[in-house]
Amino acid sequence: MSTLVFLEHHGGELQKGSLGVLTKAASLGDADAVLVGGGVTALAAEAGTYGAKKVHVADDASLDPPLPQARVDVIAKVVADGGYDTVLFANSVLAADIAAGLAARLDAGLNWDLVDLTSDFIGKRPALGDSVLVDVGWRSTPRLGLFRAGSFDAAPTGGGAPEVVQAAVELEEHSRAATIVDQQLEEASGPSIEDADVIVAGGRGLGAPENFTLAEELARALGGAVGATRAVVDAGWYPYSAQIGQTGKTVSPKLYVALGISGAIQHKVGMQSSSVIVAINKDANAPIFEFSDLGVVGDVHEIVPKLTELVNQRKGS
After folding, report:
1. Alpha helices in 83-157 (DSSP H)
2. For residues 161 and 74, which has the higher predicted lDDT (pLDDT)?
3. CATH code of the domain made up of 198-316
4. The pTM of the whole model exceeds 0.90
5. Which CATH superfamily is domain 3-176 in?
6. Burial tier of 190 (Cβ tally within 10 Å: 0-12, 13-18, 19+)
7. Would you kindly state where each structural domain of the chain is located, as residue ranges?
8. Closest to 170 (Cα-Cα) out of 246, 96, 76
9. What percent of the chain shows pLDDT beyond 70?
10. I need a labelling partner for 174 at 20 to 30 A (CA). Which of 28, 30, 126, 144 fits?
11. For residues 229 and 244, what is the distance between their CA atoms, to the nearest angstrom?
12. 198-316 has the same fold as 3-176
């Protein structure tokens, strides 16, 4: 088994999801990694900590813009030169674009939305609204796999310094055709919902956009991130980047607190793999109570401020 893991980075930091996939790959056998971008050489040592034996580094300022096609060029050559039969990605907008482009370039099979992988190359993928897991495989190599966010914990493996290999940056002409003329980065007041161990999510039951301060204050007290349902973001109450569900992001935090969320199947598929689910809703018949670990029937406007106060008191004691 020769496995290569694409490590995504932003702001000079390796992404938690990528490191989780690397941790998993290292547990199955020897795993290598690939880093693409300007100034990424400094991140190679951290990759070794999470199990990478070898890190291919394409360190070039021209690769700074997070465009997928140039990364496809680099990774395709690394795969060919290194003879890798498996390439794994943690799901993100960028990684999904790269994985799709790489599959086309290498005429390779791509399985997506995976949540696990066995040592004999059997992938596990949720189906039927996440009610069952199905086995999926590949007919040829290289095998490409894209894993759902939160599938694996990023855990140091005790590995030493990896071998660092400079990867060639040879871009196709069409890969230079697209340029990013401007980037607007959203100011983050806490962890992203993909990486957060705690998520406090709000639904239409909050009543109005200004009431999302209830979710924000509780999330701040718990050291978590704020999420939202599709109905909320469609109504303009909260940014689309916070949407959780079938058409939004899939999350797997240790604690998920749902405020005024009914629990429609479209939302359920995006958060039901959370370790502990707590729901607060005044409707005792809300579907979310069917799959919550703890359900509180009551008014979020009365319960949440008291809960936030108790959390802050506990933190201060």
Report:
1. 93-106
2. 74
3. 3.40.50.1220
4. no
5. HUPs (3.40.50.620)
6. middle
7. 3-176, 198-316
8. 76
9. 97
10. 144
11. 6
12. yes
